[in-house]
Design brief:
single chain; 10 strands
């Protein structure tokens, strides 16, 4: 995300960039970057890139998303807790600093999705209880902006379940207060006009990128992905869906069964929230629609994970876009149910039940940490996990709310604030001699670059110096480029995708039996090229750890321009 953002400084923030992929690339829609075009109105956290340099732009983007997510979550918490501030504050910490949010904070619009979805509930809540027509018009304008901002926080696997979640909350608020809410003709006009404007603006932005949308729809990944999900056993859901205690240790240890991002979850106390919520419904005469409807929605989300669903159902519900990423919404529901129930219900649970449930929760905590990292963690990690979880459950069940809030805040801040490094400035990029060399070479005599070798991440380095880089992240494919190397289209299923691209270069005289295209994972493929393919690809420069000078012959000359530690920059001179 950051290399793409920094590349825009060399593109004058145009909507389409030749720097990324070394080919005209939509920078607004497909990977949400800052552009000097009116749709940037709906990407407020990118405004800093337009107003400041890369360092302050990145700071504006990163810090403001944390601040605004916390403030919006706090205001949303005030709604679901009936303005109990200590619980609202705890809810805001749980949303902002839970492991899954912080591990994914830089990408895929996780902060924006949570900000704008909760923000829309807040705006609508204020609207429902407002009597001033001027205030309602103003709130209608805010609703338009927040809704479009949500639409273009493009990551359907999170957007769709979160939309279900917060629309359910909004409907439930209306049902809880329907006797106090009255609609007039003015309300009908404001709501109808707002919806028309939202649809109109969204279509106009999408139309600008219509070709890109079609290309993406036709890709193997993610375009043709169609999820009917399911196939996850109940016990796997327990192990990997509700393993919130593991988040305490993710800032300190690398998990080996997968990566830390994929295993991170909301710190949601599951299944404590849904258990208390069901007990509340059974033990109280007064119905709360927020609790009732979220339990129903939670059952649907859990069933979506466990069972295989018909394709027609997946399509009409839009859930065909939703993979196991639904776990984000499941975690948020667990948190809302817990905080809402604590705020509404003055329950009294027998002491022996409190201790039994707390001990069971601590055993489950040990189990989830163990199965996720038996080769990583020692006994002290299991003991500390058990103590923290059992304490939190005991404070909750015994209604020691202030202690629950204090320990929860301390635990979640530890698990979240420890994820991302604290950096000042971007000297690691712009004081880099390699970046400076690429920038100077590209400025004096531009051309297309490739990064050679298995250097994932480094492929995006030249674009931060303004160099057009063929195998920088391909947010959507350049089929015409790969067709040159695959004339009959036999490998189209490999390269027709969103992808990180590894390029390995071989001497034409070398016996090279590797397949030309190799699929490493759904978003990563390797291209094994001979030096003769470089001319077909119009490559001018190569960043590599190899010494390519022995590859030179009477047709092609590899000229070493720069050597920086392990990396070499070669100019490719075509002699014939």
């Amino acid at each position: 995300n950051t290399p793409l953002a920094f590349s825009q400084y060399f593109n004058d923030f145009q909507y389409f960039s030749e720097i990324v992929r070394g080919y005209s690339t939509d920078m607004y829609l497909m990977y949400g970057q800052a552009v000097k075009d009116w749709p940037i109105i709906f990407r407020p956290f990118h405004w800093g890139y337009l107003l400041f340099g890369p360092a302050k732009g990145l700071s504006f983007f990163w810090i403001n998303r944390i601040i605004v997510l916390f403030l919006v979550s706090f205001e949303f918490g005030r709604i679901i807790t009936r303005d109990k501030r200590h619980l609202s504050f705890t809810y805001a910490v749980l949303i902002t600093f839970s492991p899954i949010v912080q591990w994914w904070f830089a990408v895929n619009s996780i902060a924006e999705i949570l900000i704008f979805s909760q923000g829309n509930v807040i705006v609508c809540y204020k609207y429902l209880f407002s009597k001033s027509i001027k205030k309602k018009i103003f709130l209608g304008m805010i609703f338009i902006w927040v809704s479009i901002a949500y639409v273009f926080s493009l990551y359907p696997a999170w957007q769709i379940p979160c939309a279900y979640l917060f629309i359910t909350v909004l409907i439930s608020i209306f049902l809880n207060n329907c006797k106090q809410i009255k609609f007039t003709k003015n309300d009908l006009f404001i709501i109808t006009t707002s919806m028309i404007i939202i649809i109109g603006i969204s279509i106009s932005i999408l139309f600008k990128s219509i070709d890109v949308i079609q290309i993406t729809k036709d890709t193997v990944y993610p375009g043709t992905r169609f999820c009917t999900t399911g196939g996850i056993s109940f016990f796997d859901m327990l192990k990997y869906g509700f393993n919130y205690p593991l988040g305490i240790w993710l800032p300190l240890k690398d998990i080996t069964i997968t990566n830390n991002c994929e295993i991170a979850r909301m710190f949601d106390f599951a299944p404590l929230g849904i258990g208390l919520a069901i007990a509340y419904l059974l033990g109280n005469n007064k119905r709360d629609y927020i609790i009732l409807n979220l339990i129903i929605l939670q059952c649907f989300f859990l069933a979506w994970c466990i069972f295989i669903w018909p394709a027609w159902f997946a399509k009409i519900t839009l859930m065909y876009n939703v993979t196991n990423r639904v776990i984000l919404a499941i975690g948020v529901i667990n948190i809302i149910l817990l905080i809402r129930t604590i705020s509404l219900w003055d329950y009294k649970i027998p002491v022996w039940i409190q201790f039994v449930l707390s001990i069971l929760a601590s055993i489950f905590a040990i189990y989830t940490v163990y199965i996720s990292g038996s080769d990583v963690f020692k006994y002290k990690y299991y003991i500390i996990s058990a103590l923290i979880v059992s304490s939190l459950w005991l404070f909750t069940l015994s209604r020691r709310t202030k202690l629950f809030c204090i320990i929860t805040i301390m635990t979640v801040l530890w698990s979240g604030l420890g994820v991302n490094p604290v950096s000042k400035g971007v000297a690691s990029i712009y004081d880099s001699s390699l970046i400076s060399s690429i920038k100077e070479i590209n400025k004096s005599n531009g051309g297309k670059w490739i990064v050679e070798g298995n250097e994932l991440g480094i492929q995006n380095l030249p674009i931060m110096a303004g160099a057009e880089t063929i195998n920088s992240i391909n947010t959507y494919p350049v089929l015409s480029r790969w067709n040159v190397l695959d004339e009959n289209g036999a490998c189209k299923n490999i390269y027709n995708r969103y992808a990180h691209i590894t390029i390995n270069l071989f001497n034409s005289e070398t016996n090279q039996d590797n397949a030309k295209f190799v699929l490493n994972s759904p978003d990563h493929f390797t291209v094994n090229m001979k030096k003769d393919d470089l001319k077909k690809m119009d490559v001018s420069y190569i960043l590599t750890k190899q010494d390519l000078r022995p590859f030179s012959d009477s047709y092609i000359l590899f000229q070493l321009l720069e050597k920086d530690n392990e990396f070499n920059v070669f100019k490719v001179n075509y002699l014939r």
